[in-house]
From TrEMBL:
<feature type="signal peptide">
    <location>
        <begin position="1"/>
        <end position="24"/>
    </location>
</feature>
<dbReference type="Pfam" id="PF01494">
    <property type="entry name" value="FAD_binding_3"/>
</dbReference>
<feature type="compositionally biased region" description="Basic and acidic residues">
    <location>
        <begin position="455"/>
        <end position="468"/>
    </location>
</feature>
<feature type="region of interest" description="Disordered">
    <location>
        <begin position="446"/>
        <end position="468"/>
    </location>
</feature>
<dbReference type="InterPro" id="IPR036188">
    <property type="entry name" value="FAD/NAD-bd_sf"/>
</dbReference>
<keyword id="KW-0732">Signal</keyword>
<dbReference type="InterPro" id="IPR002938">
    <property type="entry name" value="FAD-bd"/>
</dbReference>
<feature type="domain" description="FAD-binding">
    <location>
        <begin position="5"/>
        <end position="342"/>
    </location>
</feature>
<protein>
    <submittedName>
        <fullName>NAD(P)-binding protein</fullName>
    </submittedName>
</protein>
Amino acid sequence: MSRRAVVVGAGLAGMLAAAVLANAGVAEVVVLDRDELPDGPRQRRGLPQGRHAHLLMPGGLTAMEEIVPGASLRGRLLAAGAHEVSLGSGMLARSPEGWLRRWRRPGPVMLTCTRALVDWTVRAAVLEQTAVEVRRAAVVGLTGSSGRVRGVRVSGPGGEEYLDADLVVDASGRGTRIIPWLDGLGLSGVRTRTVDSGLVNASRVYRVPAGAERFPLTVVHADPYVSRPGRSAMVMPIEGDRWLVSCGGTRGGEPPADPEGFLRYTLGLPDPIVGRLISGAEPLTDVHLSRSTSNVRHYLDKVRDWPEGLVVLGDALGTFNPAYGQGMSVAAFGARVLGQELDRAGGLDAPGLARRVLRGAARPVDAAWAMAVGQDVLYPGTRGGGRPGIADRAATAYTRRMTRAATGSLAAASAIWDVTSMRTPPTRLFHPSAVLAALAGPPLPLLTGPPLTPGEREVLDGLDRTGA
């Protein structure tokens, strides 16, 4: 088998790619990252959205467990304090079309915890189960030619060094330098598109109040259909008996960083439930802001003459507004494509391997991109989206009708769960049963408030210090 593979980036995409390469029999797999990696689940500089809410969807977790077999990633995360949340029965969710019902059928189950816990758990499992080596180093370029990449240039204390490789995987994330690196090889003209709604995330951690340990995940979604900035908030259970509370506002509706303004923001949403909950909870951190939220797509898979020996995965290929909870799963899908193509090729030297991986990894990126951008372009002030065409408006109208049906139709809700959980592609929404449900509309009346149990209503009323 091949001698060495180099992975740039020790985040989720990078460690999953490294596991795939090691399991495929690559003799030496080296992961390079400019950060000093923590020895536990702690925030690091290379995760700009790390302090904000992340949802590990069932489709993504399944892909991760296939990539790191025998590690029981789900079990490890749950043992460390992650929570299982049913999309069908374990959430209080206010959509743009009204409150969603909680059905007896639980639906897909996602995991909630900090992003730092997910990254650390995956990294620890990969390093335990494989011979992958992680080094702290800043990659500054590629070596080789426009026809084949031969390795990377690394900046060190003594100047630049060279590390040869049969395959280089760029999994360096949102801050990738892949475009100038390709320019350095004589490959230019890569098309890049950015769609930026101006979203600002603001998050704060609270201690879960006594008696509220089983209170469901609560979210008030942004409404893209009202020609106003999108504003949202979520209360999500995380490890350590804590709530992670994340607010998000698009351009013109950004949440503030001061604690009083943060609370006012949550109370000013179409339903004040998030503010009512946290008004009686003890804050454990300051409010943290992040603006690194735009959708960016590097169309590397469309480059006519792609070099052998170079693969790009994860956020380095496409990033999405984090409000839609797709990034971790898409990273896992890309790494899984790498494994599938390696199995077919039988080695890193197979002609066309890099291009096939790139094109395969681009498919889940494009599906996630369409979902994220299709909503972001509707917010006022979005940059780079262009004006929606007839097809875009038709898709928006259908999505809105499906969401309204889901407020009172199990068939419509099930279709949305399947897509949201990333177990099926968006085409699931056009299955005959889903189409019929969308056309029929909700057979049950719209809820006038959140579907709380009597015990949950007692908890909410007991925490509420706002008089709302």
